[in-house]
Design brief:
- The complex is a heterodimer of chains A (113) and B (115).
- Chain A has 113 residues and is an all-beta fold.
- Chain A has no helices and eleven strands.
- In chain A, the strands form two sheets. In chain A, strands 2, 4, 5, 9, 10 and 11 form a six-stranded mixed sheet that branches. A five-stranded antiparallel sheet of chain A has the order 1-3-8-7-6, with no helix packed on it.
- Classes of the chains: A mainly beta (113), B mainly beta (115).
- Chains A and B meet through strand 5, strand 9 and strand 10 of A and strand 5, strand 9 and strand 10 of B.
Chain lengths: 113, 115
């Protein structure tokens, strides 16, 4: 079993739809939970990070963490064609005194005008 | 603030040849990471430096891959000899430090094709 599981998609939605992206994880040592966005032929860029269970909102984006279920989500409201990208979940833990990040495989999202 | 710089952006080589990638992190960032991202997969950490010391190279194929970070700034990643399965995007990232959570900033990557 992989430490981080993420559905690769692709996910295709019409413009204006609400998008839900999810990851599950198995390692209870993960402390921080991140969502990165990666456009084609670009490096990943951080969208949001959370530490505790609950919701965190930033504009059209909401990150949700449920540590009891080992489940994280990213919601995108009023999706735009510019949101078309691959979304990577990532999780961080302290390992031997340094921070170690594990990425999911990414979900490819296409928002159709 | 300048971002993470990488070169070259693209490289095509034949198997058994050698190749080197270069990374210049964001000024002042002590921690530098090299990731391998195979098509359709997430980034996999190859090696992590804190200043010029290695803190994690557990997933680096040491029989063919090597990396160094001289003077705790720029870094190079080398593959010698390359195999077909090394075809991937090699991403460099940097963060301020590794003491606690710090955002990683990624460069654009070097896309390697091994024929």
């Amino acid at each position: 079993q992989k430490e981080v599981e993420q559905d690769p998609g692709p996910l295709s939605v019409p413009e204006g739809a609400i998008v839900s992206l999810n990851c599950t994880y198995s390692n209870s040592a993960f402390q921080y939970f991140m969502w990165y966005r990666q456009y084609s032929r670009k490096g990943p860029e951080l969208l949001m990070y959370t530490y505790s269970s609950g919701n965190k909102e930033d504009g059209r984006f909401t990150a949700q963490v449920d540590k009891s279920s080992k489940y994280i989500s990213l919601f995108i409201r009023d999706s735009q064609p510019s949101d078309s990208a691959t979304y990577l979940c990532a999780m961080n833990m302290n390992s031997g005194g340094y921070q170690k990040v594990t990425f999911g495989i990414g979900t490819k999202l296409q928002v159709i005008p | 603030e300048a971002g993470v710089a990488q070169s070259p952006r693209y490289k095509i080589i034949e198997k058994r040849q050698s190749v080197a990638f270069w990374c210049n992190p964001i000024s002042g960032h002590a921690t530098l990471y090299w990731y391998q991202q195979i098509l359709g997969q997430g980034p996999k950490l190859l090696i992590q430096f804190q200043n010029n010391g290695v803190v994690d190279d557990s997933q680096l194929p040491k029989d063919r891959f090597s990396a160094e970070r001289l003077k705790g700034v720029d870094s190079t990643l080398k593959i010698q000899p390359a195999k077909l399965e090394d075809s991937a995007v090699y991403l460099c990232a940097s963060s301020f430090n590794q003491v606690s959570y710090n955002e990683q900033f990624f460069g654009p990557g070097t896309r390697l094709t091994v024929l």
